[in-house]
Amino acid sequence: MKAPKEFPCMFTHVQISEMVTRIARSIEKQVPEEEEIVCIGVLKGAWIFHSDLVREIKRPVSIDFVKASSYGNQMISSGVVRIEKDIETDIQGKHVFLVEDIIDTGRTLKFLKARLSEGGAKSVSLVALLDKKVKREVDCDADLVGAVIEDKFVVGYGLDWAERYRTLPDIHFVPEDYAK
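RESULT FIELD:
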């Protein structure tokens, strides 16, 4: 699939790969060799990033997924976080990295981090490929971030618009006038 020509490229697949590698090295440095790493991907948007990230970490990693949503098929968050699929992995005493595609309002990640922290993890760190700080509505910052972006709606590399454009290899932004 190709992006419509009206969708300018924000990050190429090469730039994304560099972000993923940098984040993987940071995770390896944070967790002592003898301790366990669990990477929990937030479905559906983070699945490609999560997959690339866990393959880039040069140590054993347990994986799991959680599905939470506050968007549905909209471009704006409803503000209500719903859990649609919970984790199945025992996180007790482990270093958990919650892997998200993008932080917007921060509501979903703040909610998920609190739930995982209550599950007995040794640590819970937030990992986001993209961080849209200008949209933050709650106090929630990622521990590891690929890039901070301005207030643009982005698609590609797992990010979608009503389930479209997830499989684009690069990240593009949707011009405001295109969405109307």
